[in-house]
Specification:
3 domains, D-Maltodextrin-Binding Protein, domain 2, globular, 292 residues, alpha/beta, 5-stranded mixed β-sheet, Alpha-Beta Plaits
Length: 292
């Protein structure tokens, strides 16, 4: 039996987004209901589903060689692991999250300094206690096993430290954000002893490369177009690119084919400009991977 790398996949809110990212990167991971050992189409990988908050200690101890989890849980657990790369995605979007201090709209609390003597609920106990201590604030911090926002709404706590992507749900419950305490994103981490093993290190670095290239590709598209040579300078002038655009001569001497990689958000302004400059046959193509 050949060598295997033990990979932890976060179970819960990040699970589907992580499996989708791996598929884009080139690995098909298949899960089954109430099953903690997904299959993967790579004989060198062994996958396990692990809750994000528990993954750091498992990687630190060597139960897992590597895995993906929130940076917040690495901080919470003080996990001694090697961060290979950051991956800016969360449950519902390609952006990170933030842990925020929230209170009821009618609360007198206006800053974290107003929490002295108050009761705060959170899942992020260790971080919250350390943060308050650094600010010199004495307050009671209680662990929340879920429905954290509801505890503030119902008056069971004066405030909460809760994670959010947009803040929409918080506002919908009649709560307001007092301060951002911690910005977090998904990280790919590895066991330090695993990184000392040449085979494992190479495998981990290759996975990181492919995951990062998949993430980078989500923000970019490939533009291909045909341009008359008499308008080429004007067309190229409006084209942003990672480097210079690629230009190839076509069968007809007075036309060239141009292609370049641009930001996805730029195309709504860029394509009309290219059309006005004389470009024809403009194509916008999605990318699966982008290796810089």
């Amino acid at each position: 039996m050949g060598s295997k790398l033990k990979l932890g996949i976060p179970k819960g809110s990040l699970e589907n987004a992580t499996i989708k990212l791996f598929e884009q990167a080139g690995w098909k991971i298949t899960t089954r209901s109430r099953h903690y050992f997904p299959t993967v189409d790579d004989a060198e990988l062994s996958c396990k589903l692990v809750k994000s908050k528990e993954l750091g200690p498992y990687v630190e101890s060597g139960v897992l060689d590597c895995g993906l989890t929130g940076q917040d849980w690495i901080i919470e657990n003080n996990s001694d692991v090697e961060e290979i790369c950051g991956l800016n995605y969360s449950k519902a979007s390609d952006q990170g999250c933030r842990w925020v201090l929230i209170v009821r709209n009618d609360s007198p609390v206006q800053s974290i300094q107003d929490l002295a003597g108050k009761t705060i609920v959170t899942e992020l106990m260790g971080f919250t206690q350390r943060y308050l201590a650094e600010q010199g604030i004495k307050a009671t911090v209680r662990h929340s096993w879920g429905a954290t926002e509801a505890k503030v709404v119902e008056g069971l706590a004066d405030a909460a430290v809760e994670i959010t992507e947009t803040g929409t749900t918080i506002r919908a419950h009649g709560l307001r954000i007092v301060e951002d305490l911690l910005h977090t994103h998904t990280v790919f981490v590895a066991n330090r002893q695993a990184m000392a093993d040449p085979w494992k290190r190479k495998k981990i670095e290759n996975i990181a490369l492919m995951l990062e290239s998949a993430m980078a590709a989500r923000e970019k598209v490939l533009l291909k177009l045909n341009a008359p040579t008499e308008n080429l300078a004007q067309i190229v002038a409006v084209l942003p690119s990672l480097h210079a655009p690629t230009i190839n001569r076509m069968h007809e001497d007075d036309w060239v084919a141009v292609e370049t990689v641009v930001s996805r958000l730029q195309t709504r302004e860029l394509i009309p400009q290219l059309k006005a400059a004389g470009a024809e046959g403009i194509l916008e193509l999605n990318l699966a991977k982008l290796v810089g």
